[in-house]
From TrEMBL:
UniProt feature coiled coil, ranges: none
Lineage: Bacteria, Pseudomonadati, Pseudomonadota, Alphaproteobacteria, Hyphomicrobiales
Domain of life where this protein originates: Bacteria
Membrane topology: Multi-pass membrane protein
Protein name: Cytochrome b
Gene3D superfamilies per the UniProt record, alphabetical: Transmembrane di-heme cytochromes, Chain C (1.20.950.20)
GO biological processes: respiratory electron transport chain
Residues covered by the Cytochrome b561 bacterial/Ni-hydrogenase domain: 25-186
Bilayer-spanning residue ranges: 28-48, 54-72, 113-133, 153-173
Subcellular location: Cell membrane
Record's keyword terms, sorted: Cell membrane, Membrane, Transmembrane, Transmembrane helix
Molecular function in Gene Ontology: electron transfer activity; heme binding
Length: 190
């Protein structure tokens, strides 16, 4: 086994078989979650009519996927676990300092900024699911403020998703690897 590009902590060194050109990073649960959420957001933001049955069904799919991903964050594979990427101050501050200097290290899993973005997007998705579900309850039926909160949260997801995609493209260029493809294949260069 040989070491490949460690980042800040020696505990984070990833070992790859000698001569391997790629390593497995994103397991099927992570990849299915990611692309299901992407598809659901595109459908509910741009294709399906708000409040219709299909829109609500897609929202429930998102809620189920979030619950599964949350669980997988504790019992899943190494890079799926929250402990691998939870953005503590001791992780994110040095990363942001290095990023501002143009010397950020390559991470095999999520970098600290990517981990923060993922958690924020998951929180917003959960909030959209909750407010969408609440709008179907008799107690909140027709409440304009709730519809406005739901819409604002959905628009926030759109903005952050675009920022996330732009960051993935920039990081792909800076580290010379296709991060979008790695979320399809589950593999990154060793």
């Amino acid at each position: 086994m040989r070491k490949i590009e460690p980042h800040s902590s020696s505990a984070d060194v990833v070992l790859a078989p000698k001569g391997a050109s790629t390593i497995a990073v994103w397991d099927p649960v992570v990849r299915i979650f990611h692309w299901t959420i992407v598809t659901a957001c595109v459908l509910n933001l741009f294709v399906l009519e708000e409040g219709e049955t299909a829109h609500r069904f897609v929202g429930y799919v998102v809620a189920v996927m979030l619950a599964l991903r949350f669980l997988w964050g504790f019992v899943g594979t190494r890079h799926a676990r929250f402990t691998d990427f939870f953005p503590t101050p001791s992780r994110i501050l040095p990363y942001l300092r290095d990023l501002m200097r143009g010397r950020e290290p390559r991470y095999v899993g999520h970098n600290p900024a990517g981990g923060a973005m993922m958690l924020l997007l998951m929180l917003l998705l959960a909030s959209v699911c909750l407010t969408g579900w609440m709008m179907g309850l008799d107690a909140f039926w027709g409440e304009e403020w709730l519809e406005e909160v739901h819409g604002a949260l959905a628009n926030s997801i759109l903005v952050l998703a675009l920022l996330h995609a732009a960051a993935a493209i920039i990081e792909s260029w800076r580290h010379r690897e296709n991060l979008v493809l790695s979320m399809v294949t589950g593999r990154k260069r060793a």
